[in-house]
């Protein structure tokens, strides 16, 4: 019996005690958290922020971003009668003015053809983008704004294929979507918008009127 106890002590208990002796299970204490080493670490992090004032932090203010959108443009009204829906792309710029609202600018151009007729859409518009709520890196949003539009159509007027006059008019857009921050530099999302240019009066033909919807995937680079 004594020999068996000595064997257990020598071959099992002693090696285990040696291994456990090298492992510390102590939790950080108030003293360690307020030590000079901790203070030095915090000071280094502050210096790093000061030396890199332009570095991008997720959710930070005064962040610029440029992006591109790719998706489908759906025509309505007179536009639908003279052109086909098609895949188009948009350019975007945004600026984080607050934690809840961004300024956003959009520019796009596309030409939609159908049986010899066509619709040409071009716009530069500006708006406000408001986050509905923020959940980690995921944020649904709504947006609305005004802008400049230059819709033009080639259509049949008095049985003759005729080009409309090219004029710049005011218009509005509304939309909604979701954004997902992949990291401090890139974010992707989905955006659905309605663009409605005001009617364009013509001298010798019917006015140009219509609207269009866009559903697209977006990708932004922040700096």
Overall description:
It is built from 4 helices and 10 strands. With 223 residues, the protein is α+β, with helices and mostly antiparallel strands. The chain has 2 domains: 2-51, no CATH class; 64-222, Porin. Strand 3 (101-114) and strand 4 form a beta hairpin. The longest helix has 20 residues, at 2-21. Mean pLDDT is 83; it is low at 1-5 and 12-26.
Short description:
The chain is of the alpha+beta class. The protein has helices spanning 2-21, 30-33, 36-51, 78-82, and strands at residues 64-77, 86-96, 101-114, 117-131, 138-149, 152-157, 160-163, 169-181, 186-197, 210-222. The protein contains four helices and ten strands; from the N terminus they run H-H-H-E-H-E-E-E-E-E-E-E-E-E.
List keywords for this structure.
single chain, 223 residues, alpha+beta, Porin, eight-stranded antiparallel beta barrel, 4 helices, 51% strand, elongated, disordered N terminus
Topology:
Elements lengths: L1 H20 L8 H4 L2 H16 L12 E14 H5 L3 E11 L4 E14 L2 E15 L6 E12 L2 E6 L2 E4 L5 E13 L4 E12 L12 E13 L1
Antiparallel strand pairs: 1-2, 1-10, 2-3, 3-4, 4-5, 4-6, 5-8, 6-7, 8-9, 9-10
> Number of folding domains?
2
Biggest sheet strand order reads 1-2-3-4-5-8-9-10
Low-confidence stretches: 1-5, 12-26
CATH class identity of the largest domain: Mainly Beta
Q: Round the mean pLDDT to the nearest integer and report it.
A: 83
| Number of helical stretches of at least 4 residues | 4
- Backbone structural class: alpha+beta
Q: Summarize the helix and strand pattern as letters.
A: HHHEHEEEEEEEEE
Helix content: 10-25%
Please provide the count of β strands.
10
Strand content: over 45%
Largest sheet, described in full?
Answer: 8 strands, antiparallel, barrel
Separation of termini? 75 Å
- As for the CATH topology of the largest domain, it is Porin
């Amino acid at each position: 019996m004594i020999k068996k106890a000595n064997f257990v002590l020598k071959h099992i208990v002693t090696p285990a005690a040696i291994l456990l002796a090298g492992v510390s299970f102590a939790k950080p204490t108030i003293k360690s958290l307020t030590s000079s080493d901790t203070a030095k670490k915090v000071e280094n992090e502050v210096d790093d922020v000061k030396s890199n004032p332009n570095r991008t932090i997720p959710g930070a203010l005064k962040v610029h971003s440029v992006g591109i959108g790719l998706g489908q443009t759906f025509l309505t009204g007179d536009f639908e009668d003279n052109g086909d829906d098609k895949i188009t792309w948009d350019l975007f710029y945004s600026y984080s003015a607050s934690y809840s609202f961004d300024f956003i600018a959009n520019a796009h151009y596309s030409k939609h053809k159908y049986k010899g007729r066509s619709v040409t859409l071009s716009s530069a518009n500006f708006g406000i983008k408001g986050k509905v709520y923020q959940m980690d890196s995921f944020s649904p949003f709504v947006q609305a704004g005004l802008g400049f539009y230059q819709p033009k159509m080639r259509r049949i007027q008095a049985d003759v294929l005729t080009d409309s006059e090219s004029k710049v008019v005011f218009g509005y857009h509304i939309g909604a979507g979701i954004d997902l921050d992949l990291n401090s530099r890139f974010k992707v999302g989905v955006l659905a918008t309605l663009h409605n240019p005001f009617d364009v009066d013509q001298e010798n033909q019917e006015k140009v009127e219509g609207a269009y919807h866009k559903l697209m995937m977006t990708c932004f680079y922040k700096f």
